[in-house]
Design a protein that fits this description.
3 copies of one chain form a homotrimer.
Chain A: H1 3-9, H2 12-26, H3 36-46, E1 52-57, E2 61-62, E3 65-66, E4 70-79, E5 85-88, E6 103-108, H4 109-112, E7 116-117, E8 139-140, H5 143-148, E9 153-163, E10 166-174, E11 181-187, H6 194-212, E12 219-225, H7 229-237, E13 245-251, E14 261-263, H8 270-280, E15 287-289, H9 298-301, E16 310-314, H10 336-355, E17 358-361, H11 387-397, E18 400-404, H12 405-412, H13 416-428, E19 432-434
Parallel strand pairs in A: 7-8, 11-12, 11-13, 13-16, 14-15
Antiparallel strand pairs in A: 1-10, 2-3, 4-5, 4-9, 6-9, 10-12, 14-16, 17-18, 17-19
Helix pairs in contact in A: 1-10, 2-6, 2-10, 6-10, 8-10, 11-12, 11-13, 12-13
């Protein structure tokens, strides 16, 4: 099976259920940019796919950053005067501001209050807050619950550790038949949040599993990295190989029921065109966004010193669904259907990237006689040609060694698959030969006359 | 008289009637891609314009194709049990599928039926069908008539011949004063069909006649060729001269009352811009279409091995009027008015191509003083300048040896004629000199700031 | 104070009143392309700003033009049979067609009439007409007054002189700290017309005064020149220095209450982008126009032999307000508010041009850690970043030595000032260094992916 065949062979509904089940399993873990929850998550993923797990020691410089101390939490709570846990890490790991320093003391509500974070507009939800690089502590809670807290003394306990340890990340490398790498990257640093983090993790694991069973043109590098510092750590350890990256996608927020959104790469790349082509031909609503330097790890991959051809295909983008970074980004926000549909889109995009080729016609002067070869309706005079025949004519017309199949599909306004099938058919009949690719050829992507 | 003067000197109404009369005369002939009807058509055209007629023997290889046997028909019919001709080639040559092999035998309606073609949606019309490259036979008829055929035995007779002969095509070459050719091509292979074939033939003949009486900048090559195989035959016999082709248009469907449509060349060319400019300034509705590899012989001229600067200016495009490839594409579909209007458009386009020039101003620094030369209203202070004065200012402003008059007209939003007249006037006053053209200069067509 | 600080430090209301007062003072003078009124105007401006005044003798060739004789008028009138001045230059200098030759004789109304100019549609207004380069004479008057003139004899007197003299123009040169000139040019040749001429004069004087008190990156050349011939005279005397001009604006019609209009340069330039950016971020209506070779002295600066990067920022363009070139373009048409607002726009544009830079990030691989430097909210997890933080991310992302801050602002959709402030902040923290500019770098202005 080739990568391009996955789209048709995979049962997306079943795969969606599998991904949701994995999300459910990983949901309770208290992930952060370091620590036991992250490590356990990667260990669990290693059961699914061949995973090289890496540890980067605290204090390691990665470009302008330094790997922080490892953070672990045993427990954390705030007790009222009656000794009742009014805020309890055991109920939800979101209650604790990530990277809160250890603490155990009594204080008044007035003293505690500046350390409490709520969402006044969403009084039933717990926000997600972090303080990775500033020594601090705090609790997040439902605004409604805060309102109920009476004055008086509270006992505050954060049983956390900040130690010389390491940052964990993992990579699944699936070697391909020809030079060129495809980067798929998700962040793994968020605690009990489903769409923002677990959906991307599950989709990347699923992709890695499926790609592992295929003949691959490209090498796939599927990254499970803590946001920012993890991506930077991977970049710093893989600098010599970055030039091989032909296409890349940052995977996140792929489980909610919103329409697909694609954020282009900084520099403009074939992956942008491939995603847009696939989305256009779904017939469903979608949205294309220009690159912007805020978001997920495309910020790092597309920083000027790397400027990799990496975009990001999500459903509703970060910050644009109300549940974002709150306890409402839970198991009910992400659905097997949406996960399956996202998987389907990714598979279609990979099919385009894998199958894109440049050809030269063996009979470039005039059209070759398709009818004689049984490739064309024998009876003349009909007013219209079907898509399949138009695809053949387009492929032949642009088979000048300069236009790729992606160019053909864009200019012809046809689905990539039909163009690819036409090329295969014509190739099988000796009417096309693949154009030699000596280094990257600039795609004349905008020459639609 | 120069080519550019034709647009104003020709009586389009009269020319429209002439073209319609020629169509009427040629209408009954059974043209095909070979044979007597085609040959007679070319002979009739040779009475109108100096025509080199060519014969390409059966079996000649032209690129991926082979010239087929010559097809001729004496008669063809289907008789019912009572001996009545229920389908009769003598009534309409569309009744016979083109290139039907000879046949004479009795058969049941059931046996006959797979060989009968009708248009269920248009029960009163006979379709046009061909089988040039597949040995086959068939009849086309009105769907209403098919419904009337009773079961029983029929006598089927196709008195046709398929012999070692030749394919005929013709070319009218009108030499020009300077290097550079303009290609005008129409297909001549359709039987009794008016808009799709005869309108283009009549317009090409009219153009050749008119151009023959002019001083021409370019050499005109007006082709009357059977579709596909004829165009390929001409290409294969003229390969060394193709590099001289600067501009080209495929002429077809120019007689119906629909609005003009222009289909761009594959590569983008000045002819595209000239046609669009002319259409824009008619003030009438029109439509511009991108290139596509389906259509008339632009498919061959724009195949990747040639990629000639050839577009196609039609009225309603092939396949988009209901009468297309049916008996309803008859003498009533094409009108003298529409033919005349089409001629007018072609003459305007040729005027642009012939008159386009690049200039250099002799006073490029600042504006030259037009008033002193009587070229400009002497009285200052008026709020607006007339088009003619704006045209002078634009021509001078862009007279940098890099911009053509076509560029000027596009950027200024002015009719080409007024721009050309301004250039002539300025030239006559020594304010412009023609820029040397050493090989083609790329037109900075998109620099409208 | 730097040029970029002017926008915030200047009291635009006060400056608007100052400009209006200057206009009021200069209003009565009979300016023309030569003569005493022009000279007096320049002398008055020299009281405001350091002004080099130049005289170009009659007969001097400037490119295709020749400096005309100097024109001066002592008086001009038409008296009726009763000796009453029915047209009187003393009441309005618009009554006399500019450059009218001396004359004193009696004539019938019939004889006089061809020399009388009126506006039938605006019977109460006096038109403005000129005849600089054609020996002629005439009077302009209210159409209503013309209707009242009875038949009979009139005494016509034009007490003007046309002598070997000179054309006057003035220039204020304000040297800058680095190579590169900015051209600001207004025409000074119109008599009692406020928006068309005096508003531009007042704004240029104000700009020169303000710029004179600043630290300037660029050298400013503020020109007060008679239209066409004055601009050409300046060009001819400054040819060797024209290559230094980086940016230019023709200043006119900046006092009426209409919305701002910007006319682009011929060649497309950074000044076009700067003005459009500023206008976009005002949140007020505005209009961008393509270059056209009719208008003010941008016609000369943008002629093909110079092709300078000069656009024109006006309020209502010439010829588009009904008062244009009539006595209704008076002190009531221009307002202190509009003049102040125009000044504000010019200052913002100059701020962009002065502050535009290219940077290289000192940590181009990945994002630098802004939080550690206190440049970024310390608490993570928030859904949105403020404009100031987005500006920092954008500047860093495009700090590749290739993109200018103008590019950043355009691509980020942010106000230039916020981008500039972000760059300064990042620079102060050692995260950016200015990219060396060895000659002009082409701006990749259209690469918004």
């Amino acid at each position: 099976m080739r990568v391009a065949d996955l789209g048709r062979s995979v049962d997306l509904a079943e795969a969606g259920r599998e991904m949701h089940a994995l999300i459910e399993e990983l949901y309770p873990l208290c992930r952060s940019i370091t620590g036991a929850g992250l490590r356990t998550t990667l260990a669990r993923l290693a059961e699914e796919v061949p995973l090289a797990r890496h540890e980067v020691p605290t204090g390691t410089r990665v470009y302008d950053w330094t790997v922080p101390r490892e953070w672990n939490v045993r427990d954390a709570w705030v007790k009222n005067a009656r000794g009742e846990r009014v805020i309890d890490f055991q109920r939800s790991n979101l209650h604790l501001v990530q990277y809160s320093v250890p603490l155990h003391r009594r204080m008044s509500l007035a003293e505690l209050r500046p350390h409490l974070y709520t969402l006044p507009d969403r009084p039933a939800w717990i926000p997600h807050r972090t303080s990775y690089y500033e020594e601090s502590w705090g609790f997040c809670l439902e605004h409604a619950r805060l309102a109920e807290l009476s004055e008086g003394e509270y006992e505050v306990c954060i049983d956390s550790t900040l130690t010389q340890g390491s940052l964990s990340y993992a990579e699944c490398v699936l070697p391909g038949d020809t030079p060129g790498d495809v980067l798929l990257s998700c962040h793994v640093c968020h605690p009990s949040l489903c769409n923002d983090n677990l959906s991307g993790i599950a989709l990347c694991a699923q992709l890695a599993k499926l790609l592992g069973g295929c003949a691959r043109r490209f090498t796939y590098r599927v990254l499970f990295v803590p946001g920012t510092i993890g991506a930077l750590a991977w970049l710093s350890r893989n600098e010599p190989d970055l030039a091989a990256i032909r296409h890349g996608l940052v995977v996140a927020c792929v489980g909610d029921p919103g329409k697909p959104h694609y954020k282009r790469s900084r520099r403009g790349a074939d992956v942008d065109r491939a995603v847009e082509l696939v989305l256009r031909h779904t017939g469903e609503p979608y949205e294309i966004r220009p690159f912007s330097p805020y978001g997920y790890d495309e910020r790092q991959y597309c920083s000027p010193g790397f400027d990799l051809p990496v975009g990001s295909l999500t459903r509703t983008p970060h910050g644009e669904f109300p549940e974002y970074h709150t306890s409402a980004d839970d198991l009910s926000l992400v659905t097997p259907e949406a996960l399956g549909a996202s998987l389907g889109l990714y598979l279609e995009v990979l099919a385009v990237l894998e199958e894109d080729r440049r050809y030269r016609g063996t009979n470039p002067k005039g059209e070759p006689q398709l009818g004689r070869r049984g490739l064309y309706g024998a009876l003349g005079g009909l007013p219209r040609r079907a898509d399949a025949e138009m695809a053949m004519l387009w492929v032949l017309n642009l088979a000048d060694g300069r236009h790729s199949l992606l160019d053909v599909a864009e200019r012809a306004g046809l689905d990539f698959r039909i163009v690819r099938e036409a090329a295969t058919l014509l190739s099988d009949h000796g009417l096309l030969e693949e154009a030699a690719v000596d280094g990257p050829v600039d795609s004349p992507s905008r020459d639609r006359s």
